[in-house]
Write a structure and sequence with these properties.
Elements (H helix, E strand, L loop, with lengths): L1 E5 L5 H13 L4 E3 L6 H10 L5 E2 L11 E5 L21 E6 L10 E4 L5 H11 L6 H15 L9 H12 L4 H7 L6 H13 L3 E3 L2 E10 L6 H12 L3 E8 L4 E8 L6 H7 L3 E2 L3 E7 L3 H12 L9 H4 L7 E2 L4 H11 L3 E5 L5 E6 H4 L23 E2 L4 H11 L3 E6 L2 E7 H9 L5
Parallel strand pairs: 1-2, 1-4, 2-3, 4-5, 5-6, 8-9, 13-14, 16-17
Antiparallel strand pairs: 7-8, 9-10, 10-12, 11-12, 14-15, 17-18
Helix pairs in contact: 1-3, 1-4, 3-4, 3-5, 4-5, 4-6, 7-8, 14-15
The structure holds manganese (II) ion.
Length: 433
């Protein structure tokens, strides 16, 4: 016996993929997990008779020789009763999934990084020239739209949009579809937007209008990016940021939107460990203090030419430097004793000539090289920063050059060193893991 199943807490993509897989494997029984999403229940209350689903309790797992899994390939996401097959010998496993991670071992994996799993199955149905009914097309399109946010999520691939076109051509009904899909702008989103607008403050940054709103939320709220864009329009500013702090999980979702070329949100978010493009972006920061994030965003937006916090306040000093003629062996010893991973190298006049870090020691091949002067192994590509710059600029340099420490200069002399830990402490009030 062949069975097809999908993940617990099934959503429309899971259900659609289950139904689509039945078209590809007509002999197989479709097993719907015990737990499914609320909006799926609403759909099935009306359409259940159209699909011949089995409950996990109705299957005799001893008889199963083929297990087809759609929209997941992680054992723990399957209904616990199906897990009986995990230990069973000689079960053929076939996977159709758009998640890249999973622990199910199988020879037959149909995995593609698309926005929805149904996209992969629709392609197969098209290739096999199988006929689908308008109701099936509608369900498939629901799965596709739900998982891709109506083709707007960044995970959306051209294949998803193509599949949507194919399904509309097969008479998917958009009226039915919109009735069942949870509206992106629901009560939760409405409440958040209302609270944001009440708290809204506008200010000017250079020639632009700017607004930053911090809100505590509980649990995961979808479509916050859309809420923030609505906020930006209502408050009528060029640039808007939202800091949404999930109290339970102790993490902050930072979302930004910009309507002007001069302020590049993607750049701002990358400095905070996130990403995006010039107009929109986001970053997720754990254990962050929203007040610190506020300051950080403001500094980033202002280009931070005259920040109140100078590098002087956060850098490490005094700096231990090493003479360029010191032996590699001695330098290694000093580093070990100080417990640091690198240090600046200077000449007789205390001028900075290089920097040595653990990476440089990897270049050493022979023991006798331990007696060579450190200048033979140090990096001469010096990235330095002057004391009048800000922590943000130091962090930018670290990211740009992929380095963990930058000498801080004043009058051409090293007066301190700023490390990743210093920067992290400043930005997040925490140390890197
Ligand atoms: Mn999915």
């Amino acid at each position: 016996m062949e069975i097809i199943t999908t993940h617990k807490g099934s959503d429309f993509d899971a259900l659609a993929s289950l139904v689509a897989a039945r078209l590809i494997y007509p002999e197989a029984k479709a097993v719907l997990p015990g737990s499914i999403n609320a909006n799926l229940k609403g759909f099935l209350a009306i359409h259940k008779d159209l699909f011949n689903f089995y409950s996990p309790t109705e299957i005799d797992y001893d008889d199963v020789d083929t297990l087809i899994v759609v929209d997941t390939h992680t054992w723990d996401r399957l209904d616990r009763r199906v897990l009986a097959l995990r230990e069973k010998q000689d079960v053929k496993i076939i996977v159709w999934d758009h998640h890249t991670k999973g622990d199910m071992e199988t020879d037959e994996k149909n995995i593609k990084e698309t926005g929805a799993a149904i996209t992969i199955l629709v392609k197969e149905i098209e290739n096999q020239r199988k006929l689908i009914t308008p109701i099936q097309a509608t369900l498939f399109l629901m799965g596709l739209y739900e998982d891709t946010g109506n083709l707007t999520f960044p995970s959306t691939r051209p294949e998803d949009a193509y599949a949507a076109g194919f399904l509309l051509d097969r008479k998917a009904d958009l009226h039915i579809l919109s009735g069942f899909l949870k509206p992106a702008y629901g009560k939760k989103q409405k409440d958040i937007l209302f609270e944001m607008v009440q708290k809204a403050e506008r200010s000017a940054v250079g020639a632009f209008t700017f607004s930053l709103c911090h809100l505590d939320i509980s649990g995961r709220v979808q479509n916050l990016a859309m809420v923030l864009e609505m906020y930006r329009e209502i408050v009528n500013v060029d640039v808007a940021f939202g800091i949404f702090r999930d109290m339970e999980q102790d993490k902050c979702m930072v979302i930004g939107r910009s309507n002007v070329d001069e302020i590049n949100i993607g750049l701002v978010m990358r400095s905070m460990g996130g990403g995006g493009h010039p107009g929109a972006g986001s970053a997720l920061i754990k254990r962050a203090n929203p007040e610190t994030l506020k300051e950080m965003i403001l500094e980033l937006v202002k280009g931070n030419q005259h920040s109140s916090v100078r590098l002087h306040d956060i850098m490490s000093y005094p700096v231990v430097t090493v003479d360029q003629d010191s032996k590699v062996e001695e330098v290694a010893m000093i580093l070990r004793n100080l417990g640091c991973t690198g240090m600046p190298v200077v000449d007789k006049e205390e001028n900075l000539v290089g920097i040595v870090s653990r990476r440089d020691f990897k270049k050493i091949r022979k023991t006798k090289q331990m007696q060579s002067p450190i200048k033979a192994f140090m990096s001469r590509n010096l990235v330095t920063i002057t004391n009048d710059k800000s922590a943000i600029e130091a962090a930018r340099l670290m990211i740009k050059h992929d380095i963990g420490r930058i000498p801080v200069m004043e009058d051409n002399k090293v007066i301190g060193i700023i490390t990743r830990s210093d920067a992290m402490l400043y930005f997040y009030d925490l140390l890197p893991d």
